[in-house]
Design brief:
It is a single chain. With 377 residues, the chain is mostly beta strands. The chain has two helices and 24 strands. The strands form two sheets. It has a 22-stranded mixed β-sheet that branches. The protein is elongated and about 85 Å long.
């Protein structure tokens, strides 16, 4: 047999083939190793071209808060309208989470500027005074941050189309010591009050009221109203003889104590709709959970076409009378009749009933298995 001579070209060919086979053999192992490689931060933002990754390339929920550096997403990087109400969880955005330099058009934020609680009330009163263009087409919200706002002998008079909202009944307290002026905080037409506590510690010589005012189309919700220190103390005064005020009072705790007379809630005969209200009175000579009466002092009183005030799903609690309804009240040539409708409510204490009233599904605390009749007996 003739032996072929080994040339340089043949040696190079053999080496090339061997390298190719070796690369082919180890390729799966390399690929397998790479697929299991964990490397946080191996690819940085500088390695990715702007706009090369779009929202369709990212699965829902794939990018979480922990994956974003602090300040990585700011308002300048979000297109107007891309984040809507449906994209936000309940409570996700609060006043406390907004930047200090956030600009509000019709929301005024009141802070406890100090150094005293009296100074805090001055800030609140200043916010109200500064609103002058409020109307049906330009409503305002005053958000009162957590703190104590002591208004002393000066009441807070609300304005139409301006709502006051606190940070919660245990967080925002507006207090004062006032007699015979309608209360520490006075509701008016087309206003709203919510998520705070109002307290009147009285001046010792007259009627101390926490929150008062009929206010046509007004709303009070998630409010605690307390009164003490006067001769007569009233946590909340609602309703009116003027007409159909359509005042809504929901999720309210109204408490009164001390003095000759304490009334958790005083309801004038017409126009108030109370739902889920706790009206409580303790510590006075006469204690009434809810007092229903009217004011016959002007010829326009009463308005016979106005609907009676109503109470639903509430607790009327006092040591003297859980519910007291006055009869016909006369002053000179004028007179009026108290009027109330009550449903699904618990009465704690006796009942003093002489006016116009109607009960439905109302029960006595002392016998919760027995429903009272329509005459509340």
């Amino acid at each position: 047999m003739m032996t072929q001579p080994i040339t340089r070209s043949r040696i190079l060919s053999a080496v090339a083939i061997a390298c190719a086979l070796a690369a082919f053999a180890i390729q799966p192992a390399v690929a397998q190793t790479a697929s299991k490689l964990k490397c946080r931060g191996c690819v940085k933002s500088k390695h990715i071209k702007n706009k090369s990754i779009k929202s369709i390339d990212i699965k829902d929920g794939q990018v979480k808060k922990a994956d974003l550096a602090a300040g990585a997403v700011d308002s300048a990087k979000i297109i107007d309208g891309t984040v809507g109400e449906a994209d936000l969880a309940d409570g996700a955005v609060t006043f406390e989470k907004l930047a200090a330099d956030a600009v509000f058009m019709t929301t005024v934020v009141v802070s406890p500027i100090g150094p005293t609680a009296t100074d805090n009330c001055h800030a609140l009163q200043g916010a109200l005074a500064g609103i002058t263009d409020n109307d049906a087409d330009n409503r305002y919200l005053i958000y009162v941050e957590p703190g104590v706002y002591d208004c002393g002998a000066t009441h807070v008079q609300m304005k139409p189309y301006v709502d006051i909202q606190g940070a919660g009944q245990n967080a925002t307290l507006i207090t004062g010591a006032i007699d015979n002026t309608g209360g520490v905080l006075r509701i008016t037409n087309n206003s709203g009050l919510r998520h705070l506590t109002v307290e009147n510690t009285g001046a010792g010589g007259g009627t101390a009221t926490g929150v008062s005012g009929s206010g046509s189309a007004s709303k009070i919700s998630h409010v605690t109203a307390r009164a003490s220190g006067g001769t007569t103390n009233v946590g909340l005064s609602a309703g009116s003889n003027f007409g159909a005020t359509s005042q809504s009072v929901t999720d309210v705790i109204a408490e009164a104590s001390t003095g000759a007379t304490a009334r958790g809630v005083r309801v004038l005969a017409r126009g108030a709709d109370l739902d889920n209200v706790v009206a409580r009175a303790r510590g006075a000579t006469t204690n009434e959970g809810m007092r229903v009466d009217c004011s016959p002092f002007f010829p326009i009183f009463p308005n016979p076409t106005a609907p009676p005030s109503t109470v639903r799903d509430s607790v009327l609690d006092a040591t003297t009378s859980g519910l007291a309804v006055q009869g016909t009240i006369t002053s000179g040539p004028f007179s009026c009749v108290s009027n109330i409708r009550i449903a699904n409510t618990e009465l704690i204490g006796a009942r003093g009933l002489t006016g116009s009233y109607l009960c439905a599904a109302v029960y006595d605390y002392n016998d919760p298995t027995f429903l009272l009749d329509q005459s509340c007996q």
